[in-house]
Amino acid sequence: MRRPVDYGLLEETMSRARDGSAPPGDLLAAASGALEEIASGRSGLRAVRHPLGFLCLPVHRQDDRGVCVHVFDAEARRAAPGLTTSPVHAHSWDLASCVLYGRVGNLRVRVHDRPEAPTHRVFEVRSDASATDEIRPTERLVTYEAGPEETSTGGEIYTLPAGHFHATVVPPGTAAATLLLGRSLPGRRDLSLGPLHGTLHRVVRQTCDVAHTARTARTVLRRIDGRHSR
After folding, report:
1. Residue 171: CB atoms within 10 Å
2. What is the pTM of this model?
3. Domains (ranges, CATH) in the chain?
4. What is the pLDDT of residues 130-151, one digit of tens each?
């Protein structure tokens, strides 16, 4: 059985770490506590392979709030389901993410409605409890331009409001992990930029077994410990 996660406390700790009134180590300790339970196999939690090329450990889900650990490495990229849209997407939830180790870039993207000369179509992504994404084309035709990339390293935090398009960038050949807090907003949809003539389709995310999930958690813990020992 999983130990309950205090989302409010994590959210407060994340906010205090951002403004410098609490050490980032408090967040790393919170992440390590959740990962140790997963690594033991007691939680029964199963990681999910995300089409964007990372492994998601869904630590906590309740109502409009969620806590995940995202793991980026070569194996996660190789085994990810095929991406049918682009890496540029917008969440239906406010995001706050602490980098546990490695380097993670948050590339802000400006999207412009351009029905007369579009390069992409906006798709809605509707996910269900069976780890299936239904990807639905909308009438919105757009172009986009990359804005600034904010790069964060171990112990640093970045945030992104719901509805803002972005892409996550982890340099090839490197590994990283993040502790992510999300709070969904009513009436919002997850969005992605995709091909102009893309059609309605579904993508099934692969769920890992408990043993693989536990091995992943142990790897993340070793890398967190290695960062502290330097």
Report:
1. 13
2. 0.92
3. 7-229 (2.60.120.10)
4. 788 999 999 999 999 999 899 9
